[in-house]
Design a protein that fits this description.
The protein is of the alpha/beta class and about 110 residues long. The chain has three helices and six strands; from the N terminus they run αβαβαββββ. The strands form two sheets. A four-stranded mixed β-sheet has the order 1-2-4-3. The chain has a two-stranded antiparallel ribbon with strand order 5-6. Bound molecules: flavin-adenine dinucleotide. Flavin-adenine dinucleotide (FAD) binds next to strand 3.
């Protein structure tokens, strides 16, 4: 990943909420399975962050994958081969509950 896109992404989410390669496990204290040295991870806080991240990756042609809680059983949330994972863990707000219809409006990081 070139330094230009790294600088743009860090300008969106802040230097601590974007990490590359081995810094992923150190920063996020998570066991990153698969190829540790490739890929990057970005932690948006808002829908606007996500929109700007997706536009930025479009300019630099970087593949992306979303990650909610990472409990999927097929490895779909892993960014392989230089891709970037958009991890939604910080987007964990609730906007409304409709108990009668069993509906909740929440952000993608809500468990
Ligand atoms: C013990 C266990 C029991 C389970 N039981 C069930 C069950 O009963 N029923 C069931 O359906 N599943 C079950 N699952 C599978 C899994 O929990 C569900 O599929 C769950 O909905 C995955 O949510 P997640 O946030 O963890 O997704 P993740 O693993 O983070 O992602 C799963 C896929 O969705 C994509 N994705 C995630 N968030 C977004 C987003 N905001 N925008 C776009 N793409 C996104 C990812 O890229 C990936 O491809 C189980 C898993 C475990 C470990």
């Amino acid at each position: 990943m070139n330094s230009a896109i790294v600088a743009e992404l860090q300008a969106i989410v802040g230097p601590r909420m974007f990490c590359l390669g081995r810094r992923i496990s150190a920063l996020t204290n998570t066991r990153v399975s698969g190829p540790r040295s490739s890929g990057s991870r970005v932690f948006p806080f808002s829908t606007d962050d996500v929109s700007r991240i997706v536009q930025t990756r479009g300019k630099h042609d970087v593949p992306i994958v979303g990650r909610g809680a990472g409990t999927g059983l097929s490895g779909g949330a892993l960014a392989r081969g230089g891709g970037m994972m958009i991890a939604f863990g910080r987007m964990n707000r609730h906007f409304g509950m409709d108990l009668e219809n069993r509906r909740a409006v929440v952000q993608p990081g809500v468990l």
